[in-house]
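Hey, can you fold this one?
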Amino acid sequence: MMLPATAFSLLPVKLLNLDHVGIAVTDLEAALDGYQARYGVGPLYREVVEAQGVEEAMIPVGGSFVQLLQPLAADTPVGRFLEKRGEGLHHVAFMVASIEIALEHLHQQGARLIDESPRPGGRGARIAFVHPADLGGTLIELVELPG
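Sure. Predicted structure:
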């Protein structure tokens, strides 16, 4: 059943945009070279996010990004992901207006949260993850950008 567009404004959390799709890679430079050679695109942002244990590059695609993630060490979440599953889709990230409201709503709905509270992410964002076992087998990241 489709809800009318006005019904979404009544929900305590609203997904504003597909912020990015995260792809785990073993060699960030090689992945960036591949995207440049095949699609003619390069990163708008590139940074090391120590708190996440990754170096990331954000390639703009329309109003969203492809986020390439290279682990800083094998014992990080992305490092363990690569060891277990190899390169590929790691997560899907949705932008929200208020990460606290989103987390509270998800908690009240019984969602299986990895993060009970926000943590720092790239681009100065605050992020939180929802466990892949919660819905559809995909790791979901919530993103609240600064400002």
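Residues 14-144 form a domain with the 2,3-Dihydroxybiphenyl 1,2-Dioxygenase; domain 1 fold (CATH 3.10.180.10). Let me know if you want another pass with a different chain boundary.
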